[in-house]
Specification:
By secondary structure, the chain is α+β, with helices and mostly antiparallel strands. The protein has a three-stranded antiparallel β-sheet with strand order 1-3-2. The longest helix is centred in the N-terminal third of the chain and has 13 residues. It starts with 7 loop residues before the first helix and ends in a 12-residue tail after the last helix.
C-alpha cells in the first residue's frame, strides 16, 4: 500500500546520503571530522587518511554536495568541518530499513 511507504522525497534524500557514504574512505573522513569537531585543512585530512590530495578532495566534494561536510574559507585556504545539523537528522540505516521512526530531514541537512 502506497500510504505505508516512506515519503518519496525523504527516501530520495536518504538515498543521496547513503550513496555519499557508500565508500569506506568517505565514512572515515566523516568520522574523523566529527570526532575532531573543528575545521581542518585538506592537508590534515590527507595526512590522516593516507591518500593523495586529489583523491581526498574528490571525496570531500561528494560529502559537501550532500552537506555532511561544510567548507569554510580561511584566508586563501579551504577548511572542512562536519555539519553538526546533519548529525541530528541523519537516520541510522537500521532505523530506516526496520521501519522505525526516522528523523525528518530539515533544510540544514
Amino acid at each position: 500500500m502506497v500510504g505505508d511507504l516512506l515519503d518519496r522525497d525523504i527516501a530520495r534524500t536518504y538515498a543521496s546520503w547513503f550513496r555519499a557514504l557508500a565508500d569506506p574512505t568517505r565514512v572515515q573522513i566523516v568520522e574523523y571530522l566529527a570526532r575532531h569537531g573543528r575545521p581542518m585543512s585538506v592537508g590534515e585530512i590527507v595526512a590522516a587518511v593516507g591518500l593523495a590530495q586529489s583523491t581526498v578532495s574528490q571525496h570531500l566534494k561528494i560529502l559537501t554536495e550532500v552537506r555532511f561536510v561544510l567548507v569554510e574559507p580561511i584566508g586563501t585556504a579551504r577548511h572542512y568541518r562536519i555539519n553538526d545539523a546533519c548529525v541530528g537528522c541523519f537516520p541510522s540505516a537500521a532505523d530506516v530499513v526496520m521501519g522505525r521512526p526516522a528523523p525528518i530531514p530539515k533544510g540544514a541537512c
